[in-house]
């Protein structure tokens, strides 16, 4: 037997390898969390007159599309509640969780089972409009929205299975502002918390005005207190003058306030020291009189 032709066989092998390589490359480039509504203005939807996406603007929002008649969906709801508690324990508290129940009649009847497993709202689909179709979602999908209301990640099975960490990772990335939509509402909230320069200058000026007012009030209080403290001095002078004029009414009025200060001025304590001098003067007068009486020259 002659040698078999290798050309067609090699071509077939090369074609299969190229096909596999192209398939792997396309799968690697495809984003499993992508959606036609990603990073675009989200569609409006409401349930029972409530618009959760509009009211939750400014917070990260997690929407789970579950079916109350499905036992796996009930276990997903319980795991989602545990995830919410874990995130809150880590300080990620401003995250809104919600569930949109399926619109089937059996799911409507068993909606209370979802509500018993979670502490966040459970919304029902409308009779004529489907929220799931509006969100381009399906059963067991979990959608993560940033603070601007844009869809950042839409996780489908098996990525939405809460035993894995895909949902938690998507929530944390969106919460810390590393989402693909580049939401800037977090920065605006920070600027609202920290006042701008002009407001700060006005506040500083107001503080300065308050300080000047307080200092003026302090000075006025000092002057009033000083004037009040000076008043007893006036009473002291009146009391001294009253003592000089020997007015008993003024003395009785001013004595309780001016006794300790007026004692050295009004009471003649040093006078007993002059008594010998007075006696000497009297003796001299007597002596002079005696001299005048018995003067031999006269």
From TrEMBL:
GO MF term set: selenium binding
Location in the cell: Secreted
Pfam families attached to this UniProt entry: SelP_N
A cellular component annotation (GO) from this entry: extracellular region
A GO BP annotation: selenium compound metabolic process
Keyword field: Glycoprotein, Secreted, Selenocysteine, Signal
InterPro entries, alphabetized: Selenoprotein-P_N, SeP
PANTHER family named among the record's database cross-references: AGAP003297-PA, SELENOPROTEIN P
Name of the molecule in the record: Selenoprotein P N-terminal domain-containing protein
Organism: Patiria miniata (Bat star)
Upper taxonomic lineage: Eukaryota, Metazoa, Echinodermata, Eleutherozoa, Asterozoa
